Amino acid sequence: MAIQPESGIVIVGAGCFGLSTAYHLLRRGYTKITVLDRSPVLPAPEAASTDINKIVRSCYADIFYSKLARDAIAKWKNATEWADCYRESGVLVLLTGEGSYGDLALVNDRALGARTVLLPAGSTNTVPSDPSSPALPPVVQNLLQDKSGYINEDSGWVHSSRAVELLIDKVKSLGGNILPGKAVAHLIKDPHGKTNGVKCADESEYKADCVVLAAGAWTASAFPELDLEETCVATAQVVGKIQLTPEEAQAYRANPVYLDLDSGFYMFPPNDQDVVKCAVHAAGFTYRPTSTSASTPIFLKPPNEKDTSHGHFETAVPKAALQELRAGLANTFPALADKPWAGARMCWYTDSADEDWVIGFHPRDPGVMLATAGSGHALKFLPNIGSLVADAMEGKMDAELVRKFALDRAKNDVPVSRPGKEQSELDLSDIVSSE
Ligand SMILES: *[C@@H]1O[C@H](CO)[C@@H](O)[C@H](O)[C@H]1NC(C)=O
User: Fold this and answer.
1) Ligand 1 atom closest to Cα of residue 74
2) If one looks up domain 1-231+245-278+320-331+354-417 in CATH, what number appears?
């Protein structure tokens, strides 16, 4: 069932997985690549990747991802390919010294030769043992008062909506056909029950030797007959943005991305518009319109709907989530804790329980390649994740990875970055636009 360069490929979803897959197939000589997306505008404003930034870290407790991330980072750094999307601010990960996710990530980063700076609690300088080394930014010194951590200097963040735009251009220039405004209504099957195309809501049909489902948080609910929800659960994460004054931005400019995998709280340094974004890496919210349906994205507009151009899509968010962000700020960057939100939104992801992706043919339908379950950490792999999907499609993926990413796997025994956190169902009556 492996495909070949002459095969017709339809990819459902022009997001991180779909575009990267299209790009890598085109680079491998495929000529019949069609990418369909339900959004009339691309990048889709409500896609989680259409955002001002996402973390680019190789700090993973599973060394498979550390390696893949280091490969992605080498690609991000190529300005011919990605302009200035990637900012190597460094990522500060907190440690417990007790085998936490951060501790395991440090071991992996060091084993792979990443530039790491270990910072014991109370550190004031970039080389803690050398008081004449440059001082850490005061904001970072404050974070480390009674916590230890490490900075991975080979990491940072990426302007994700801009990166997706660039990848759309690359796919088009390689001959890929990207069609916005094409909501797929259902799969078309041959007499043996194998998918061989899709039918869109506008009645148009696209035939294919292989259909790649990469519809992000919409994947499980859009194709209920594939029974994806057990492994792929759509969850909403809330992010908040704060506009800094130029003086404030100066104080935060040299900060690394701050990531506390214990509490889940993380914050970016200011972007080019002096906006900082923070969030809590947690289990998130589900939304099930009926008791039997799969969780599916829902967006409630703020009453005074603001600019919805790229990177500024905003939604109403659960009040409790905003309060949690405030508490996180008060614990880490207290000087910002009382500033008003410049914006907030829900980012809808697709989570698997073990945070491993789902990449592989559907166990019951060899015409369907699944490329989903980003689990909130896929966007950093935009330059190379599609190569894995292409390997799976061509039957070239290592057997071990085929099992790791299979839809019907038993939950993989890997350390997760959100241990013990449970999803909660969105309470639509508790949703606010801001405080
Ligand atoms: C950067 O990307 C360009 C364009 O794809 C390529 O020609 C060049 O070899 C790359 N540079 C490095 C250092 O990989």
Assistant:
1) 14
2) 3.50.50.60
**Boundaries of every domain in the chain:** 1-231+245-278+320-331+354-417
Q: How far is the CA of 82 from the centre of ligand 1 (A)?
A: 10
- pLDDT 10s digits, 112-149: 999 999 999 999 999 999 999 999 998 899 999 999 99
- How many A from CA of 81 to the centre of ligand 1? 7
Pocket test for ligand 1, best of 80, 173, 384 (most atoms within 8 A of CB): 80
Which residue ranges have their beta carbon within 6 Å of ligand 1? Answer: 78, 80-81
Tokens coding 235: 């969850």
The H or E element spanning position 86 is strand 86-87
Output the CA 419–ligand 1 centroid distance in Å.
39
Q: Please write the tens of the pLDDT for every residue from 373-382.
A: 999 999 999 9
Q: Which of 78, 82, 85, 167 to mutate to test the pocket of ligand 1 (most atoms within 8 A of CB)?
A: 78
Provide the CA 212 distance to its chain's centre, in angstroms.
19
Q: Alpha carbon 331 to chain centroid distance?
A: 25
Q: What is the pLDDT of residues 187-226, one digit of tens each?
A: 999 999 999 999 999 999 999 999 999 999 999 999 999 9
CB 128 within 8 A of CB 118: yes
Nearest CA to ligand 1 atom 7: 80
Cα(first)–Cα(last) distance of the chain, in Å? 54
